[in-house]
Design brief:
The structure holds three protein chains of three kinds. Chain A is of the alpha/beta class. Chain A has ten helices and 13 strands. Chain B has one domain. In chain B, helix 1 runs parallel beside helix 3 and helix 2 runs antiparallel to helix 3. The longest helix of chain B has 28 residues. Chain C has one domain. Classes of the chains: A alpha/beta, B mainly alpha, C mainly alpha. Chains A and C meet through helix 2 of A and helix 1 and helix 5 of C.
């Protein structure tokens, strides 16, 4: 497996604020990679540095396939969050123009443009002015123009976040097909989109990598057994829960050695225990509950989801 | 020289000027009608184009439309 | 420049020209110049009549306004181009780069393997084609009407002054391009360019000896050339060369600015 893009120590400072601070990651050829993070984490800045639109303050990016091309922009296709075109052009004219700027002859660009517009479902609107396109149509046109030169790496910034549900679904379907043909890197703040489409994920927070790796291995590595407990909202039960949580927190902060219960999260009438081992913890909990005659509504044992991990990583 | 003036000669000389002005007004009106968004109400621009002589159409061309194209 | 970048440049110029056509600029800007050009000789020709019709002169008073010579009328036409004409050209060109950068259209183009110089160059080429086209159309129309109504003007003087004046316009428009790359606001760019060019011509007019070498003096040389006045040709050539030099410098600076930050933040 070769890395298509190797990023080392990528940093961007605006004045003294470091929007991106020392990112190290690699994008494997043929993989679909999500750059995941909350708003303001530095996703757009990172993407723009990769596309060459922004000069990094420090760090380096190595495109392996670009070694014999010279200009790495020739192997990148870029789709910004809300792409802007020339409203006076037609969709077809724009894709042809994009193709010619990438070095295709006018005939090649014409053929390729028709093919791509059909693929993104814009054949009917190909000869209409872009000014009349809807948001979803513009996004699909953006995909078509990004793919015109058959890029090795397709880079997208929040490709679906500005779209309505219908547009979202259309674009996600397209991406599902595209990731089979080329390497894809896209940023998103929606875990679900990353989980849905990607092989690898890079979670960034405050301009730094919080966690990265293959989604499947992250899922298994960070899976924790949990027990979820839901109680009736009577006084007695609520009092018990508050007291029990207090006791556990005390023992957690006092004893250095981790007990059966690693963590407790309290919600409205429910609690969530991250535990060392489900069976023992369940037994312990059931005994406590019976003893205190608490009215249990639900007790569920399971594993933490990627969503939990994401929330935890991002909230730190 | 003043004696040579007559109306038909004047018309022949002025006609091209009027024709060009008319073309400018027509282009401006057509673009105004086709524009999706104008800066300020359309009827205002129509009045400006029609009555502000040469300046009207020019003003519309330069700043009338929000979206170029 | 390799052939592939030349092809890209020409593709971009074609796009700019198509934009001029679709936005009707290629039609209306030259028409405005023709109108300006025709109006000057026509107004001069009818001035005595107009004064007579409108004037409250006592009966029998002789109106004695000497009709200007043909060359004087053409010089006045150039002055018209210098005010309203330049205003129109600068205002149509003020957002060429900043508009595309602000909307984000520029970043979609500049991530493709095109050089910033080709991008700036294509905008410059189309801008200058429009300006020279409009100037020539307007000036030739003025010449035709002047010969028809007022008097002859030698072709050599017309063409010479057209070339000198065209260089001045090119200079002003190149500065517009630079400021459009430098500043986000189109209005600020237009304001800076118009202010700077007025100041430059004024200073060059007031101190011909000290500032005669500056491009700001070019419009003055064009007026002098068309009326057939002799002028210091050494200083003129200096002005022409400094104008060309500054044009190249401004283009290079614009491309460098664009390379440094291809898109507005």
């Amino acid at each position: 497996m070769t890395a298509l893009l190797q990023v080392k120590g990528l940093t961007k400072a605006f004045n003294s604020v470091k929007a991106v601070n020392g990112l190290d990651f690699a994008i494997e050829e043929g993989h679909c990679v999500a750059l995941l993070g909350p708003n303001g984490a530095g996703k757009t800045t990172t993407i723009r540095m990769i596309t060459g639109l922004l000069k990094p303050t420090a760090g380096q990016m190595r495109f392996h396939a670009a070694a014999n091309i010279g200009d790495e922009r020739a192997i990148i296709g870029y789709l910004p969050q809300s792409p802007a075109f020339y409203n006076w052009m037609t969709g077809l004219e724009y894709v042809v123009y994009a193709g010619r700027l990438c070095g295709l002859t006018s005939q090649m660009a014409g053929n390729r443009a028709m093919e791509l517009l059909e693929r993104v479902g814009l054949t009917g609107a190909a000869k209409r002015r872009i000014g009349t396109y809807s948001g979803g149509m513009k996004q699909r046109l953006g995909l078509a123009q990004a793919l015109v030169h058959q890029p090795k790496l397709l880079v997208m910034d929040e490709p679906v976040s500005a779209l309505d549900p219908v547009g979202r679904r259309e674009v996600l379907e397209l991406l599902r097909e595209l990731k089979r043909e080329t390497t894809v890197l896209f940023s998103t703040h929606v875990l679900h989109d990353a989980e849905d489409l990607c092989d690898d994920v890079i979670i960034i927070r405050n301009g730094q990598i919080a966690l990265q790796g293959a989604i499947s291995s992250i899922r298994s590595d960070h899976r924790r057994p949990i027990i979820e407990l839901q109680l009736e909202r009577d006084d007695r039960s609520e009092k018990w829960l508050a007291g029990y949580a207090e006791r556990i927190r005390c023992s957690l902060s006092h004893s250095s050695e981790a007990g059966l219960i690693h963590e407790i999260q309290l919600g409205d009438g429910h609690a969530r225990f991250t535990v060392k081992e489900v069976d023992e913890a369940r037994q312990l909990l059931l005994e406590e509950l019976a003893q205190a005659r608490v009215k249990v509504r639900k007790l569920e044992a399971g594993y933490s989801s990627l969503e939990d991990l994401f929330m935890k990583v991002v909230a730190q | 020289m003043n004696d040579q003036f007559d109306t038909s000669q004047l018309l022949a000389i002025i006609a091209p000027v009027l024709v060009i002005q008319l073309i400018l007004v027509i282009i401006a009106l057509v673009l105004c009608a086709k524009a999706e968004q104008t800066r300020g109400p359309k009827w205002m621009w129509v009045l400006i184009i029609l009555f502000a002589n040469i300046i009207g159409p020019i003003a519309f061309f330069i700043m009338g439309r929000r979206n170029d194209g | 420049m390799s052939t592939s970048s030349l092809i890209r440049y020409s593709v971009m110029v074609q796009k700019e020209l198509l934009e001029l056509v679709r936005s009707f600029k290629l039609l209306w800007v030259p028409l405005v110049f023709v109108l300006l050009g025709v109006m000057q000789p026509v107004t001069m020709f009818y001035m005595p009549l107009l004064l007579e019709k409108a004037g409250n002169m006592p009966e029998g008073s002789v109106i004695d306004i000497p009709l200007p010579t043909g060359t004087e009328v053409l010089a006045q036409t150039l002055q018209q181009f210098g005010t309203l004409g330049i205003l129109v050209l600068v205002l149509t060109a003020m957002s060429t780069v900043s508009g595309e950068r602000n909307s984000g259209a520029a970043s979609l183009i500049l991530v493709k393997p095109v050089s910033p110089f080709a991008y700036i160059g294509s905008k410059w080429t189309s801008m200058l084609l429009l300006a020279w086209g409009a100037l020539s159309a307007g000036y030739l129309a003025a010449w035709y009407y002047t010969e028809l109504l007022i008097g002859e003007v030698p072709a050599k003087q017309v063409i010479g002054s057209l070339l000198i004046y065209g260089l001045w316009l090119s200079f002003v428009l190149t500065m517009t391009l630079l400021f459009s790359t430098l500043l986000k606001s189109p209005a600020a760019a237009a304001f800076s360019v118009l202010g700077a060019s007025v100041t430059l011509s004024l200073i060059s007019g007031i101190f011909p000896k000290q500032m005669g070498w500056s491009p700001g003096a070019l419009s003055g040389y064009a007026y002098q050339f068309v009326v057939g006045e002799s002028f210091a040709s050494g200083r003129f050539w200096l002005a022409a060369i400094s104008g060309l030099f500054l044009i190249i410098l401004a283009l290079t600076a614009s491309a460098a600015l664009l390379r440094r930050s291809p898109a507005a933040e």
